[in-house]
Amino acid sequence: MLLVTLAIVLSACGSPSPTAFPELEPHGGLPSDFAWQFKDGPDFYVYEASSPSHPNCSVGLYFGTAPQFHPSATAQGRSGSLAGHPVVWEESVVDGLHRADTVLPYRHSAAHTELAIHAWVVAPRDADLGPLRASLATVSFRPRGNGPA
Length: 149
Hints:
The chain is α+β, with helices and mostly antiparallel strands. The protein has helices spanning 2-14, 126-135; strands at 24-27, 35-40, 45-51, 54-64, 76-82, 85-94, 97-106, 115-123, 140-143. The longest helix is centred in the N-terminal third of the chain and has 13 residues, at 2-14. The protein is globular.
């Protein structure tokens, strides 16, 4: 009996818990003239993308566990996709700029903790917002440092 109890305790100790915070980077998912820029935070990180030919448009991805996104009461939900996962984009107009936000629960592997990926797109016109939001449907995430994103 003691041997069985010891075996159960040891097997439980040997099971890795998903506590590793994954260091990921986005790959693709942007028009060709946009480029991702990395910004590190204390317990999160962000990738933002912009383009010289579209100076008032931007795309962002927050990787962390506590996104600070709360849709406004006037936001309109629109079905879409982020990295191949179905999401609802919350669209609004803030200070004259069109904005779409979504949060995707994401676990890169069983060894990693689950992240909340807050994605956002900002553009001066709704006509610019749609294609940028749609491009994020094809973004993928890979370990950081694997070459140009």
